[in-house]
Amino acid sequence: MATMASTARSFGAEDRAFFGGAAAVLLLATIIGFAPTYYLAPFVAVPALAPLVHLHGAVFTAWMLLYCAQTALIATGRRDLHRNAGMVGAGLAVVVVVLGVTIAIYSARTGGGPPGRNQPVFLVYPITNILVFAGLVTAAVINRTRAGHHKRLMLLATLALVVTPLARISRMLHLPFSPPAIGGMLLADIMVVALMVFDLRTRGRLHPATVAAGGLFVLSEPLRVLLGHSDAWQSFARTLIA
Fold it and tell me: Residue 178 — left, alpha, or beta (φ > 0 → left; ψ -120 to 50 → alpha)?
């Protein structure tokens, strides 16, 4: 009995360390990726940001901070506050999705991004990131009473949002990926692999949520590339941008 209790405490500590550390990494990636064009915009020579961009940035940041706070609440045993904040998080997730799609279309319409970007092709990346986020958050809410499923789904949902700042980091590091969105997806896959390693180390096998959600995350990436270069998508994207 003492050995079982010790093992449970050890696993709980590793669990909290991994998910807390993952949340911190995603927040740091967000800050670094958006620092030149958003967080440090008042201090560097960048064009004035539109109110919609400021709203999107504030909501996106609020989600990242809430996600970090939620992992901290679980780590400190405040599940009551975690549940209450979860209701706020569900509403915030809806706003993230609506604003995410809106800002993606707005950016394409106004020629955002590097000069010469093929906007109809590129639009597939932020749109699918948001759709993956929406699907995984929905699954996480449905599985909110199944802790193992819930925290993995929330991690991967938030990772879907962080693909965008990771793409910017890919460009900053001059990684040999074109477009940088592909670099962002590959950097995000490192976190998926880390989750798999964590599962194997602590459980001896992959968690079902890791298999399903992680598989969706990774397998959707080549499909995004193929979809973005299809005539059907580009025709649809031009309709959205027009």
Answer: beta
91/102 Cα distance (integer angstroms)? 17
Q: Model confidence over 82-121: pLDDT tens digits?
A: 888 888 999 999 999 999 999 999 999 988 777 778 889 9
Token pair, residue 128, equals: 């699918």
pTM value?
A: 0.90
Judge whether 70 and 30 are in contact, CB under 8 Å.
Answer: no
Residues of the chain short of pLDDT 70, as ranges, are 1-11, 45-46
Question: For the chain, what are the domain ranges?
Answer: 15-241
The Cα–Cα gap between 209 and 153 comes to 7
In 76-214, alpha helices (H)? 79-109, 119-122, 124-142, 147-172, 180-203, 208-209
Helix axes 180-203, 147-172, angle to 10 degrees: 140
